[in-house]
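Lay summary

Proteins are chains of building blocks that fold into shapes. Our project writes down both the chain and a compact code for its shape. Here are two examples, one after the other.
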Amino acid sequence: MTGRTCPHCAAPIKETAISCPMCGSDEQTGWSDSASADWLLPDYEEIIANEFGCPPKKKSLKAIGVLVVLFLLAFSLIYFML
């Protein structure tokens, strides 16, 4: 077997094959020397976007600062009331 692949399903095929053993593709269904299976290669960025959605937004430093101030205020009120 050589490095020849089916342009429809990318299955390895023998050089002397008249049709693909996996999908049955042949000259009449579009299998020719000019056909290619490049469309089967995955697009990494598209896969990541589909699997994980948009990247998470970074938390705002302002929101973290407000939470810290509220925590300190609550702590100081509890401390001085005891």
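And here is the second example, written the same way.
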Amino acid sequence: MTNKVLVNVYVIKLDKSYDIYIPLDLPVGEIAGLICKAANILSENQLKSNNNYAIMDGSNGNFYDLNTIVGNTNIRNGKQLIFF
């Protein structure tokens, strides 16, 4: 799977972490929507959907620009992300 990376996403609102494959060729904003959908499915609809997403680098606390393509960021296999 060279076009996807496996990341660990901590979802603040659920206080849970999930391992999720994300594609490298989409903008971070689209990935945020996919993470929201996946977390909602995995949590049996405990997460309320909205359009105000943010993703933070779990190692340094920097937020990702939602318009940047994932492959152009430092997101790689094993990366810890925090989802707001």
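What can we say about the second shape? The longest helix spans residues 28-42.
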